Amino acid sequence: MFAVTLLCLAANPDVPNVALGPESAENALRVDAPVARVTVFADRARVTRRGTVSFPRGVTTLGLPDVIGAAFVDSIRVTVEGAKVIRVESAPVLRERFGIESAEKLLKEIEALDVEIDRAEARQALEQREIATLSSISPAMPVPEAGREGRPLMVLKPEAWLESQRVLSERRARSAERSRQTQDELEKLGEKRARLVEEVSRQDLGGFTDRKIAVLVLVDAPREGRGEVELEYFVPAAKWTPAYSVIYDASKGEVELKIAGNVSQASGESWKDVAIELSTAVPGVGIAMPELLTWTLGEKRDFLPVARPLTGPRPQPPVPGPIVSPRAEETARALRLSLLRERLAVLAQGRAAAAQHGAEFKKKTMIDFEGAEISGELSRPSAGYRQNRARPSVASPRPSAPPPPAPPSMAPAATIDDAISSYGSVMTLSVAAESSSQQSMYTRQTSMGLHDPADFGTPSLGPVVDPGLLGLPGGFEYVFKSPASIDVASTGEFVRVPLETERFTVDTFYEATPSISPVAYLRAKVKNRGTRPILAGPAEIFVGRDFAGEGQIATTGPGGQIELPLGADEDIKLLRRVVPKTETEGFLSKSDVTTYSVEIDVASSKRKPISIVVRDQVPKSRMEDIDVKFLGADPAPFETTAEGVMSFRVELAPAKTRTIKLRYQISRPRDWQLYQR
Question: Which of 124, 381, 394, 484 places its Cα 20 to 30 Å from the Cα of 353?
């Protein structure tokens, strides 16, 4: 499993005289280190395992728990309290998910059941043949007088035939009863066999082995003692997104903001009762500033072509490493596993055919032969219980056994940057060719940042994090710690991790866009007094104990204003009316002029005064022949954007209605048809 690594150097007496070889894993001091803490990033997670171990003085080999095969090998780090870590050796291995012995035991039980089923089938065939023979016996017709020729006249004795018929009927009934009992026995044997087949198929699901990473650690302790061992590594397929619950208390004028994180992972290992940390950092993005290449401009009067080869010289193949021969017990176990897979392949053929007639195991067939007459020869059915099991005959070719697995070898370590390319990052390659050299530039952008949705989608080329956070003191890495331990299964499903709760005294106001929706929306503004940002994410809105709806919170840095949506208010009604009036103006060059009069009624059923911001807009034209002119509004807008969106502030007394009026004019050449984009 591990390549032999000599750590003794005669020139350096400080290096311990110890070798790390294939037997080191068997003789290593095992350390039980369960997962204690997990830090989840936008595209991966850092797993920390902790355990304690008692070690002697001097050099000791520690065997740590296997790491999942999907982990980044070069991210494995080990620290040991009270001892010096000399070397960390990690290598991919194949671990048996189920023992070969248990699978072989199940197969032996299935084969023994097959023998019992064959015997029961043979008994049932004999019993049914006997029933058919007994049912075919009937009185013979008298010989015609013309054909009697010397034979005595038959004397009819009905009582003798009735006695014979009674004896035959009793024997037929006993045979039918034995046949029914045999059928019940076959059904029970079939159900038992099906359970065993299902159990052995579960063991064979995906193979008998899992890819793991074995970790061995050489430590040097100055004295005998006991210390804590910490194993740390990165795993892919983990992510988190922020989520919020906003609870508005109108009586106190407060908003309770419950901050949580939706964590999802499919790394291959389950995290049970672990401390969860959620980080805004993106490890897949480089931290070094890119450097500019020299940019020169010039001109040559004389151009001299330079010949270049089509292909360069072939690189020399690397020197192959030593081949480690497998041990005798490993070879024997590989052969047993190969034979076991062959037997399972034969069993799988039977399962595939039995799936077409599997319902017959659940169905009982009762046959009443009383009074039945069967003529002809009874033959065995062509699609009976034997065919349902579909065990291959001796003449059928057996599937070829797969070759025994090769001994595991050291796989090349995959870097974090290489591994992350398949988990949400985009790599673009641009090649700039010069006359004498070629240069390549790699640009990496990660598709998950602080504003990413809850699911992985098509990689985006947008910014990794909110540009507004890049200028904050301390950078853009923030860590949120869960106050309690959490279980996160490796299923890819989201688990809500509560983080913290904050209370704000808020100033509420209403907003409305009656041209789109005749509903007023309650909003609140609060100041983020914390030292960490409020990240963008979905929010569940509650007004008191009632669920009002879902909204979205924008990213807000420390000291910024947070706008919290609080849902629609049905006590405020809006009605928008538009009255167009078109006239033709001009003497030689005529134009159509349409004047639009817009009236917006705002009615409040509240018991207290409210302030509402109503937004409407005036269209914009990109053509010189079409002129849009704003004629005025009452009340005047307090804000007008470049896109023509105007904001009106209306103060409403309890149970009152106010009207906003605005007018604008559109002029265009006569008979022109207007449209909007």
Answer: 124
